[in-house]
């Protein structure tokens, strides 16, 4: 005799439904319990890491830090215009550490104002590329995305995973920027290289970022070019005066590829030029320690000793530590006539990465520096006065850029003197121009990351790309080829901290 099954109880029914829902979620690869998984800050942006920084990619809709509000809004507006235009478009991401947290590792020289300036330059390159009258072609139009890797680039891994996914589904064809030559930067570059997403570095100098068969390109001169310039300059001074004693002061912190290659490259360059040093081993310190300032003060005592004073120092370290060295050299009671030469990171002397805005060296230090015998020179990626020397009067691209910078109300001429906005512009310009070339003569061919990489490989083969930092051509490793640099003096004068002293080549 057939006995009908008993209907399930309400509790049993809910249990069955719950199990079915769970099974569907598991099969779909979606599962969460409570607070597990990153908390969403906005579309494409999640809280990551010990400081719960909002990390990820935005079209400008989300503002990573207060100083980026104005430029983020302008980027968002231009991206919306591109979407509504009906023209084909591709996306380019600009990555920097755009957030900072209390108690986290020092963010080196990429303070918030420097990051802002670089992104402002990137935005102006987007506007220039999208202007049909600029001479860069019309399609595809360029959408600019902001990609935050977190303080010190610590959250590079989830960011790279997100960018890799976007290269397939969301028309991302390249990544620009990268900030500084840290180990986190190299990890991000290596991962994007493996994914074959083309990159153009704006202000990174470490030699180890380069590779044969390049996927990573850069508009910034690598350390080996910068140190060759410095060694040549110091050798000239020594040839003119045999008593011109030179010493090296170097940061030997183990996880900073910029400092490491700066030291090694300078040693090779000075040997090649026959530059004599005061000591074979130089003077060493370790950055990031509570005793760093004390160590640099002891080194200042050594190089400034009256019985055998050193005339010049090559400083193989970052701008943050160079600031401490300057404080030591100009300390009350110490008298020293010295020329300090350093690499591109010296630009950070006048920025404090822990402050909400730019912060010049403390007033009393500026006063002592102004009346001291200390002169500081560095090899700069770009300077407005250098651009004027590199182009004929009617062909200088900086003029239109400066006007656009002022029209956007980003800042005045002094904001442009450190070259950071110029470098952000040039990195995005390269990716945008490569995208246009990949689209073919009629601008109708489909553009992907592989096509953009192919066209980056062609930059400089037939003609150079006129960038704000100079004419851009890439060598077989993706580095700038035959590109001069500006020799810039850091000045304590209130009228301007970055004084152009000449254009020099490796």
Description:
- It contains 15 helices and 17 strands.
- With 506 residues, the chain is an alpha/beta fold.
- It has an 8-stranded mixed β-sheet with strand order 1-2-3-5-4-6-7-8, with helices on both faces.
- The longest helix has 19 residues.
- The termini are far apart.
**Proportion of β residues?**
15-25%
Largest sheet, in brief, is:
8 strands, mixed
**What is the helix fraction of residues, given as a range?**
25-40%
Q: Tell me the strand order in the biggest sheet.
A: 1-2-3-5-4-6-7-8
Key terms:
506 residues; alpha/beta; globular
SSE blueprint:
Elements: H1 10-27, E1 40-42, E2 45-48, E3 53-58, H2 69-85, E4 89-96, H3 112-130, E5 141-148, H4 156-169, E6 172-177, H5 183-194, E7 199-201, E8 216-218, H6 223-240, E9 246-251, H7 257-273, E10 283-285, H8 292-303, E11 312-316, H9 319-329, E12 337-342, H10 363-370, E13 373-380, H11 384-390, H12 398-407, H13 413-416, H14 420-438, H15 449-456, E14 465-467, E15 470-472, E16 485-490, E17 498-504
Parallel strand pairs: 4-5, 4-6, 6-7, 7-8, 9-10, 9-11, 11-12, 12-13
Antiparallel strand pairs: 1-2, 2-3, 3-5, 13-16, 14-15, 16-17
Helix pairs in contact: 2-3, 3-14, 4-5, 6-7, 8-9, 14-15
Offer a concise description of the structure.
With 506 residues, the chain is of the alpha/beta class. The protein has helices spanning 10-27, 69-85, 112-130, 156-169, 183-194, 223-240, 257-273, 292-303, 319-329, 363-370, 384-390, 398-407, 413-416, 420-438, 449-456, and strands spanning 40-42, 45-48, 53-58, 89-96, 141-148, 172-177, 199-201, 216-218, 246-251, 283-285, 312-316, 337-342, 373-380, 465-467, 470-472, 485-490, 498-504.
